Amino acid sequence: MRELGISDLMFRAFVECIVLVGIHAYLGLHVIRRKVIFVDLALAQVAALGTTVGFLFGMAPSSTAALLFSMLFTFAAAALFALTRTRSERVPHEAIIGVVYAVSAAVIILVVDRAPHGAEHIKEVMTGSILWVTWEEIGLAAAVYSLVGLFHYVFRRPIVAISRDPQAARDAGIRLWAWDFWFYLTFGVVIAISVKTAGVLLVFVFLVVPAIVATLITDRLMIQLLIGWGMGLLVTVTGLGISYFADMPAGPSVVAFYGVVLGLAAVLIYLLRSSSLARALRRAGAGLLVGGALVALIWLAGWALARSPLARSDHETEHAHQHEAAGQPEAGEGPAEIAGKLADCKLGRLEDARGAPADHAKELAGLEKALAQAGDDDRRLSYAVQIACRDPLRGARHLVELLKGSKIPFVRAETLNAIHELAGRRFEYDPEKGVEANAAALKEIEDWLKEATAPGR
Fold first, then answer.
1. Residue whose C-alpha is closest to residue 1's, from 124, 138, 132, 120
2. Which site in 234, 247, 321, 371 is 20 to 30 Å from 205, CA atoms measured?
3. Residue 421 CA to chain centroid, in angstroms?
4. How do residues 1-22 score in pLDDT, each as one tens digit?
5. Of the residues 274, 299, 315, which one is the last residue of a structural domain?
């Protein structure tokens, strides 16, 4: 990845995260005060549902049409949330929000079951593709978020009043359902744009975690906002740095680091506010020991159960020997397990390594069968690289086909890296663009493959 201008990719992701933190830290404070913690998840899921339905109609998930379509869904959800908030609230508002979230998630699964590359789409909706955000998308987000921020500033009095005390706001003559609608409407616009690049999970932590920490520290809105912005900036930069140096997905890395920071911040605030620091330290130490013991117990249980006969169903046990005899990876076995079983290798130049040794014949047959049956491009890439390790010629063909067929920029980038290693040269291919935009580069890659594999070479 670093060979493909990773510093530029990370910089764009960093700028996008700054833009996201700016608006989400503010909206998150309203979410916490209104006690509708899952409204962001629900709206994010509804926005993702709109994108998914648009995908079924033929709209590319990254297109403007898909964005506008997802906004229609969030507008409908905003109206629903505003109209279902009643004075008595015999049914908690959070329950309605939870139902909307669950139904939206279920419908997404039903819809993508009918769509090509459904598994890849669900993964992108949940984790986003923030590394591949463009400057145009960042500019659009900054402009829209600025307008939303301006709206909230101009009408801050009724919006803040409802968030602080809805009953007092109602007594003061503020029409709750009308201002709730405008709040959720602007909230939905922000969520629809955010989910497009950041995904559902990252949007949730951007909204909730800084707001939780800020609320634990102070009750003053402006100081809460400053704390949320500062924490969001620091955690985001660190999380992106961890994802870069550890070679992990950017979005999930930031989400996981937010969880770690929230836990540490809660412990620190507890220690600082305790009337007896010694007693607080003892309790924190006891909690740490119990937590460590639980982690160790879970790890040991997983290790033991995974090696016991209980780990396999009767059907898997019956067919395990058939898979081994055929040289095919067992059902449910992922790229990591396969890579662990097969000998490690480094891809060399195709011209310097020809043909497959006889002792790899069964492995190659099994890998090619597994590649043909793989349900997503990540697994196909892992199988294709393993094939190239054993037979560079066959592997190169599979990699070129994957490069032409994958709709995931990250997979195309990693596939291109493997092709560069096999070719011993670089091709002017842009992983962020599709087949048509890379037609000349693909022709050059195919010509190289034909030349390198021609008889007599």
1. 132
2. 247
3. 28
4. 333 344 566 788 888 888 988 8
5. 274
Is position 283 within any domain?
A: no
Q: Over the stretch 363-416, which tens digit does the pLDDT of each residue have?
A: 778 788 888 877 677 788 888 888 888 888 888 888 888 888 887 887 888 888
Q: Is residue 285 part of a domain?
A: no
Phi, psi of 308 (to 5 degrees): -100, 160
Residue-wise pLDDT for 177-235, tens only, equals 888 889 888 988 898 888 877 877 788 888 888 888 888 888 888 898 899 899 888 88
CA torsion, points 430, 436, 440, 446, in degrees to nearest 10?
Answer: 90
Q: Which CATH number goes with the domain that contains 174?
A: 1.10.3470.10
**Long-range contact pairs involving 14-18 (C-beta distance under 8 Å, separation at least 24):** 14/236, 14/237, 14/240, 15/138, 16/130, 16/133, 16/137, 16/138, 16/141, 16/197, 16/198, 17/130, 17/198, 17/232, 17/236, 17/237, 17/240, 17/254, 18/233, 18/236
- Domain containing residue 411: 327-452
In order of 321, 357, 388, the CA distances from 354 in angstroms are 31, 9, 10
- Tell the residue number behind the tokens 């906002």, with chain if given: 225
The phi and psi torsions of 219 (rounded to 5 degrees) equal -105, -5
Q: How many domains, the chain?
A: 2
